[in-house]
Structure formats: C-alpha cells, structure tokens
Amino acid sequence: MLLVFVLAPLVLILGYSFFQRGRFGGVVFNFSFDNFARLIDPLYVNVIMTSVGMGLVVTILALALGYPTALAIVRLSPKWRTIALVAVLLPFWTNFLVRTYAWILLLNNAGWINQALQGMGVIHEPLTMLYTPQAVAIGLLYMYLPLMILPLYSSLASQDAQLVEAATNLGASPWRVFRTVTFPMSIPGVLTGCVFVFVPAMSNFVIPELLGGGKTVLIGNLIRDQFLKARDWPFGAALALVLTLLLIALLVAQQRASKRLTDGPEERKVSSRA
Amino acid sequence: MTIPAVTPVTPVTRSAAPLLDIQGVNHSYGSVAALKDISLSIADNEFFALLGPSGCGKTTLLRSIAGFETPTHGAILLDGVDLTTLPAHKRPVNMMFQSYALFPHMSVEKNVAYGLESEGVPRAESRRRVGEILEIVGLTDMAQRRPAKLSGGQRQRVALARAIVKRPRLLLLDEPLSALDRKVRAEMQLELKRMQHEVGMTFVVVTHDQEEAMSMADRIAVLNQGRVEQLDTPLGLYSRPATRFVASFIGSANLFDGRATTDGIDVPGLGTFAVPSELPSGSSATLVVRPEDVVLVGPSEATMSGIVVDTFFLGGSSTVSIEVPGQEHPINCTVHAANVASYGDRVGLKFDLPRCVVVANPGG
C-alpha cells in the first residue's frame, strides 16, 4: 500500500520526464532526453540557483533563530516546556494563506510596520518591504521555522544530562561544554532541521507569488507553471525529478553524518571493506 | 592539580587537617530535607564510603561536593578552601558517574583527554598522560574506539581513567560497580582498591551495597534519612553498631527488643543479658547478636532451647535457623561444620555475650 502511494507518483514523474509535450499540451510518448537538455538553459539554471540561494539563506536564518530557541525550551521546567512547544506549533494549525496575508498587512507600504515607523518619526517615506526577495525570505522563514525547532528540540531533549555534568566536572566552562558536548551531539538534529527547512523553502510557490509579487521565481513556481500554465508536463516532471534527487541526496548525507557521530570513523572503514 | 586561589576560611596546616571537611551540611528539595546537618571529615589517601539505602541522601552529598547541588546550609572544605563558593567546573574534584557518562561522540582517548584539554595542558603532555593512564587501566588497544564498542567493564575503566587522569586530590565515585554483573564486580572491587593505592588518591565512594563498602573502604559513613548514623571502620560497624539501623543494615543480625537495665538488657521471654550499655535504665533497647555469636551447646550450658526449622549450607559454614518459644523470628546461628543439626532437632544455645551489643530502639 505504502509502496503504491510512494513509488507510483515517482515512477510517473520519472516516466514523463523522458517524453515530449504535445502541440496542445498533453504528452506525446516519444522517448528523448530533451527535457534534461533544457535544464541547462541559463534561464532555468538561474532559477535553480536562485532557489538554492533562497533555500540556503532561509535555512541559515532558521538555524540561527531556531537553535537558541530549542535550547531555551529544553531548559524550561516541564510545564513551561509544553506551553512553549504548543506556541511553536500554533501557526501550523492556522490556515497558511491567512498567515501569509497577515504578512502582507504587516509589510506593505501602508502596512502596520511602515505606519508604526512613520508614526514614531523614524522614517518619512514608507519602506518598500513587500514584493522583494527579502519579503519572500521572511515569509519562508516564518513558515518553516517550526520545522527547524522541532527536530532540534527533540535532539537536545534526548541528550543525557549527565554528559553535561561530566564535562563540567572535568573542568569545562559552560561555553566549552556547549562547544564540545551539547552542540556536536545535536548535529543529527541540526541536519534534520536543515533538510526539513531547505527543501520546502526552495520549492514553495505560494509565498514567492504573494510576498514576492511574482518577481522572485523559485523552482517551485517553475514546476507549477510547467504543469498548469505551459502545460508542458514532461519538462515539469524533469524539474520535479531534479528536486526529488536533491532531497534524496541531502537525506542520505544527513543519515551518514549522523551515523558517523556515534559509530566513529573506525566503523566506516569496516563497512567499506565488507 | 592546582587549588584555585581562594582565601582559606581557617588557616590550617596540611598534615594535621583532614583533606575534606564537611561541616553542618543541610540540603532540601522543596520541603523535603535530603541532608540533615551532616558533619564528617575524610583524611588524605583514605578510601571512604558513603553507605545507605536509596533515598538516604548519599548521592545528594556526593553531588554537593562535586558542585551539582548547592547545600542550603553548611560548608564543604577541601584543604581548608570552601568548595561551596566555587562553580562546579572550578572544583579540583573529579567524579565517576554511575552511568559512566562517557561522551559517545569521542574515542576512548578523547574521552580521557577531555579533562586535560579543559585545563589547557599542552598537547604532548596530555597525550603522554592519557597513554600512561590507559596503560594502567589496560585499555591501550582500545584508545581509538568509541564507547559504544566497549563492554561494560571496559566502559567502567574508561570512566575511571577519565576521572583520575587529572590526578585530583579527591575522587568521587557514584555507585561505581552497580552497572556490572556479579563476577566482573568482584574483580573490579579489588582493582579499584589496588588503583587507589597505586595512584595515591582519596576516594569517596557512594554505594548501597554493604558488601562492596565493607570490602573496599577504610572507613564507612552509614547514612539513613539524611543523617549519619555511624562513622567507623568496617570492623567497627560490624562489631560495635551504634544504632539499631546500622545493626540491621550491616551484615545479618539477630535483634531482640527489650528494656535496658542498670547492667544489661531484659528481653521478654528470654531473660536478662549482662551486656553493658550507656542507655538509661528502663529505656527501649535492642540486643544485637551476630549469627556467629550464637553458640550451639549441650543442655547443661544452654540458656535457651529451640527447634531447628531450616538449615542453609553455604560451603565453609552453615546457617541454622532455630525457633525459640516466645520469639517472633527464628534465631540464626552460624556453624562451621555440616550436619551439626538438622531439621526438627531440639538444640540448646547460648549467646557469646562479650561480643554482643545493646543499642537504643527508637521504634520501641
């Protein structure tokens, strides 16, 4: 059952990506590599680069904000911990379009932020914040931050508290304890969080449209347009395939890095010989 | 090992003063008192044990010395320096954790070197000292392994190596052997004792296992409900228990509750025994008789008689349980030959009174 739901769409995408677009849309079952050749077109390479760049920026910001947050939540008392986790999750349970429109209200030229800043006399002309790449980044960051915080939280919360005590007892200052014990042991959580944020951030197509005004085109927009506007399903499938492969590569890398952390380099030599 | 420069509370000369001096330490978790006015001192090079049932406060006391708990009152002096004024990472005291708390992401070598690196010991020296310590604990071949690839006994050695590599004046060991199986535990008891002599360090070990404490420690503090019940050598605790709790907790004992008299104790149903004590006449008291101080004798010498209800053969000796009329529990007696008595026999017995002790009976 699981196989049908997971594999069938992938096989379809893989299949379609080798066919060609019909004159009026639809698919002509003509085997070719044309779709992949088109991917190298500077136009599309550019979109992919922008997407990767946007994904990286959002991921780094999410990590910078999410790590201290997760660490703070772990150190709360059990009661406040639950409250904090619910607060992190709360936006997930409200409609995503409503939340995105809320950002439009905040960011636009006559929006609340501009009004407040003008009211305080900090600025005289409204700042252009909406329909910029920065607005897209803020929207994506806001949207996917919980996906960073949750894996970090679960990784940090499952750490043995005695390890921190052991390091302290051996004379390590709080900063050294963090640098040599707490952080290295949370790397699997960091990597999971990064993959969870990076992949959806670079393939989201609603936020670039609403907050970026369609000026920032990410790979998600491109794929959506191929299927719904250009009606070029085979090329859309090729683009989607690139995205899927990227995701798989990242997950494999994350698994390996996590495994290396507990098993050590020695283990890898053994398995590669076998 | 450098002792951080803190003004000593009282000027002391090293040779006369104890290494560790615990003065009136109290600790409570909320309204629950975990430590009640603990005072004890530990000499240099001593193997000291804190023994007691779970929840007696022994671990809290150990964690207070290490700096993971802050006592509500009292001082803990190491060489005259009050440790309670230092944060945990600046105390010249190392600890071996019950779970070992080895860093899973570091090799054995890195684990052991961690304390030296924290202290800023140069790389070459750190490498040399780690090598030496791994040699002592016999783990030189395992230096590059991760803790996950070691056996329980090996992990215990790594934990010990990591704790002693900084040559602390004082080493704290929290239930050091509880995670090992019985056979390995006996070996490690001997090894710990040998190690303590070899490195010349003061060991403070927390344990709930009286055999472990008795076989390793020079002196033992028996803790119960946050108080020190008695502080003595293993032999002293066994032969001269100061309280009813110590008598029942250390080794096995026949306890007979009664009333103190001017020159002994009166046990209802058994008679009066001339065992002197400091207790005021008429107060509730308990006569403590070790099984080996119960002697099977002929009818002419016997002060009481009973029926054998059970015998346990223990190899070199046997324990015989004798039901004496009027006594709730059968009296246990250790005999050094098999077939002295068997089930259903009527035997005469007497107590070796000079070896018996009378203690107060707070529950009576």
TrEMBL record, chain A:
InterPro entries xref list: MetI-like, MetI-like_sf
Main location per the UniProt record: membrane
Residue ranges constituting the ABC transmembrane type-1 domain according to the UniProt record: 48-254
Membrane-spanning parts: 43-70, 82-104, 135-156, 177-199, 233-253
Membrane topology designation: Multi-pass membrane protein
Any GO CC annotation of this UniProt entry: plasma membrane
Name this polypeptide is given: Spermidine/putrescine transport system permease protein
Species whose genome carries this gene: Alpinimonas psychrophila
Taxonomy of the source species: Bacteria, Bacillati, Actinomycetota, Actinomycetes, Micrococcales
Automatic annotation (TrEMBL), chain B:
Family assignment from sequence similarity: Belongs to the ABC transporter superfamily. Spermidine/putrescine importer (TC 3.A.1.11.1) family.
Domain of life of the native organism: Bacteria
UniProt source species: Alpinimonas psychrophila
Domain ABC transporter: 20-250
Function: Part of the ABC transporter complex PotABCD involved in spermidine/putrescine import. Responsible for energy coupling to the transport system.
The gene coding this protein: potA
Subunit (UniProt): The complex is composed of two ATP-binding proteins (PotA), two transmembrane proteins (PotB and PotC) and a solute-binding protein (PotD).
Database matches in InterPro entries: AAA+_ATPase, ABC_SmlMolc_Importer, ABC_transporter-like_ATP-bd, ABC_transporter-like_CS, Mo/tungstate-bd_C_term_dom, P-loop_NTPase, PotA-like, Transp-assoc_OB_typ2
Protein name, entry field: Spermidine/putrescine import ATP-binding protein PotA
SMART domains recorded: AAA
